[in-house]
Amino acid sequence: MKIGILCHHTYGGSGAIAAELGKALAAKGHIIHFFSQAAPFRLNAYSRNIHYHEVEVMHYPLFECPLYSLALASKVSEVAHYEKFDIVHAHYAIPHALSAMLARQMLEDKCSGEKCFRLVTTLHGTDITVVGADRGMADVVRLAINKSDGVTSVSEYLKDETIRMFNPVKEIAVIPNFVDTSFFRRAPRQDIREQLGLGDEKILIHISNFRPVKCIGDVVRVFYEVNRKIGSTLLLVGDGPERSEAETLARTLGIADRVRFLGKLDDIVPLLSISDLMLMPSNAESFGLAALEAMACGVPVVATMAGGFPEFIVSGEHGHLLMPGDVEGMAGKAYELLADGEMRERYSDACVRQAKRYETALLVEQYEAFYKKLLNEA
Predict the structure, then answer these.
(1) Are residues 172 and 33 part of one domain?
(2) Are 265 and 152 part of one and the same domain?
(3) How many domains is the chain built from?
(4) What is the CA radius of gyration of the chain?
(5) pTM score, two decimals?
(6) Alpha-carbon distance 128 to 335, whole Å?
(7) Average pLDDT along the chain, 378 residues, taken 10 residues at a time
């Protein structure tokens, strides 16, 4: 199949999954064309079957906002005309599915009135829970969903939220996020500890885009309570709007020397491999890919009962799930795991086994079957 993939290039789960899906499909012989403003941050592979198209946005004084959606539609239409795409897969309803719809309209005359490609839209969360929650955008999101040929979501939670908020006519299939366990596996390296100036203390880690929903302040507060009982260091990987406040909070609590802000990093396996525990106190989470990748590296997770977490994290087996905002409870469970090496080892082994149920190859097969079903219906 010839498949176009529209995705965000920035740090986050949707871009990571889009890139990993494209790479896996290319390895199986499919021809993949990526479209975004810059190369997706996980697109770190060379393949004869992978092509990348940068979307250049025209800046014109008349328009206050860059015309990315229109530029994307034009680029997809241009490439699809010559490459004869079978599928265009939009990761996010807005703007990607809408741009793909417009691209298809541009092609209708050239394709004798027929639909030139089948449009698949994958809902990742923000397009529903943030953009879609804006009343001014609700009808646009609903249109993007209903005019897609096939729609998937990354969790049952997100599917239920989409139905509750939009009551779409289009059926939504759940295909969860996935992880390459041949890459995400525990491989501790002493030199990483040395480079970071770490001793034999316990290591806690958090990875995200530091948006308000990730509750970075709670990460720091939980760590503060844990560090009072057991010597430890907190690794914060990522960046975003909440970083400055988190840095201020760490200084206020007197733990700035125990908290490392490492910024955006592509290669997180070495850091996960030296970590003892992941903290994910999100208020909402459509799936929680960072937690799954941590589990594949044998890192138990203390998270919240929010969104998709309960669909793959069993509390008391792979870590613990508590109510959002329960800093004291999360700190208590984190300390229990860090203080009991035998328990942590048991949880670690269970995490690795659970991650294998979300192996890339298994979920890519589901996407392939989904594509073929739509093509057979055309």
Answers:
(1) yes
(2) no
(3) 2
(4) 21
(5) 0.90
(6) 35
(7) 89 80 94 87 80 79 67 92 94 91 86 77 77 69 92 94 88 95 90 89 96 95 97 96 96 97 92 97 92 98 95 97 97 97 96 97 95 89
Q: What was the pLDDT predicted at 93?
A: 87
Residue 86 sits in which domain range?
Answer: 2-178+359-377
- Residue 183 domain flag: no
CA dihedral 166, 170, 176, 182 (to 10 degrees): -140
What is the spatial distance between Cα 282 and Cα 56, in angstroms, rounded to a whole number?
34
146 and 269 share a domain? no
3-state secondary structure the chain: CEEEEECCCCCCHHHHHHHHHHHHHHHCCCEEEEEECCCCCCCCCCCCCEEEEECCCCCCCCCCCCCHHHHHHHHHHHHHHHHCCCEEEEECHHHHHHHHHHHHHHHCCCCCCCCCCEEEEEECCHHHHCCCCCCCCHHHHHHHHHCCCEEEECCHHHHHHHHHHHCCCCCEEECCCCECCCCCCCCCCHHHHHHCCCCCCEEEEEECCCCHHHCHHHHHHHHHHHHHHCCEEEEEECCCCCHHHHHHHHHHCCCHHHEEEEECCCCCHHHHHCCCEEEECCCCCCCCHHHHHHHHCCCCEEEECCCCHHHCCCECCCEEEECCCCHHHHHHHHHHHHHCHHHHHHHHHHHHHHHHCCEHHHHHHHHHHHHHHHHHHC
CATH number of the domain encompassing residue 286: 3.40.50.2000
Q: Is residue 184 included in any domain, yes or no?
A: no
How much is the pLDDT for 113? 58
